[in-house]
Design goal:
single chain; six-stranded mixed beta sheet; 8 helices
Length: 234
Amino acid sequence: MKADFDSVQVVEVSRHFGRRRALANISLTARAGDIVGLLGPNGAGKSTLITMLATLASPSKGEIRYGHETASRLGPALRTRIGLLAHELHLYPELSARENLAFFARLYGLDARALVGEALASAGLEDRADEAVSGFSRGMRQRLALERSLLHAPRLVLFDEPFTGLDDRAVGLIADRLRVLASNGAIVMLATHDLDLADGLVTRVALIRDGRLVSDEAATPGLRARYRSLVGAN
């Protein structure tokens, strides 16, 4: 079955780890062109939701639909349409930037020669392409890992705290990359607690507190004040 879709629906999803409830009855929809900010305090359940959207964990209750189908219905082909950038960057430090990208391109059965140069350019790393990743700054590794997650042109792009530890230049480069992805029809969802970065970047906001969705709405100016009123954080 062809695994393409232009929306993702989370339908009454809960996730439990033993007796601990990570998420409870979450429902939200993201569409092509959206940049959805999953906001909330640490431990709210944002990373758990990202993990389930990436098909790395299954809901304890409810379902996630990719278009009109579930992950079990679409099978392994679904993962060819999902890109994930998590806390762990999944880069090999002893390999160069070029070698890392070529390795992951081959895992997807792609022509590395056609893709690696473009990915290095997008990451701003052409002049460091043949250096070992172990010598890269956090921002350089983050940009490389971002391009690694996009080599296969995924429809759904998932980021878990993509701006952690980055300087202003790296933040700007990644934010611009996300805008381009959305404008080209990707569904972008990012979990973050950085309200200043989210404000002006995300087009929709899903606020999660204690595993529950407290708001799902279009992004508007004054995100910090809105967040404070709903979540009660500074």
